[in-house]
Amino acid sequence: MSNKPIEVMARGALVRRGRLLVCQGRGADNVYLPGGHVEFGEAAVTALAREWREELGVPARVGRFLGAVEHTYRQKGQVHCEVNFVFSVTCPALSPSCDPASVEDWIGFRWIALDGLAAAHLEPRPLCRQLPRWYATGRGVASCWASTLL
């Protein structure tokens, strides 16, 4: 067993006109939902609103809980483990007709088709299947859980 911490992440799914806003590290092949680390003693919804403003420079309204995904991956030779709490987000300042600018220089943002998540290399991978389901039904499923550990 490792003594490394499990990272707790709050992620936001902004879907407009069948397109999903994603974040991508400069030079990375994969994309992920905007958001970031939940700090000790901070609510996941508060962390998501904070991270959204820090990364995109605009406020967002955090909506319903969609589900959770535990995830493990390698970055620069190191194994990372995280639990992602995913929420719907609304942000009137952003439109899928234009990729938003990033406040932080190490990441960028773009819109991708909700039916093209796998081709865009969305991580954690289970979100490629779950996000379209959550939006097709018009509601999240509080009992939804997925994992890349199994």
Helices and strands in order:
Layout: E1 7-13, E2 15-16, E3 19-25, E4 35-37, H1 44-56, E5 61-75, E6 78-90, E7 107-113, H2 127-137, E8 145-147
What is the C-level CATH assignment? Alpha Beta
Largest sheet: 5 strands, mixed
Oligomer: single chain
Q: First CA to last CA: what distance?
A: 17 Å
Strand content: 35-45%
Helix content: 10-25%
Give the integer mean of the pLDDT values.
90
Radius of gyration: 15 Å
Question: Structural class, judged by helices and strands?
Answer: alpha/beta
Helix segment tally: 2
Q: Output the strand order for the largest sheet.
A: 4-1-6-5-8
Overall morphology = globular
CATH topology-level name: Nucleoside Triphosphate Pyrophosphohydrolase
Count of structural domains: 1
Per DSSP E runs of 2 or more residues, the count of β-strands stands at: 8
Fold and architecture overview:
By secondary structure, this protein is of the alpha/beta class. It has one domain (about 5-145): Nucleoside Triphosphate Pyrophosphohydrolase (Alpha-Beta Complex), CATH 3.90.79.10. The protein is built from 2 helices and 8 strands, in the order E-E-E-E-H-E-E-E-H-E. The chain is globular and about 45 Å long. The two termini are about 15 Å apart.
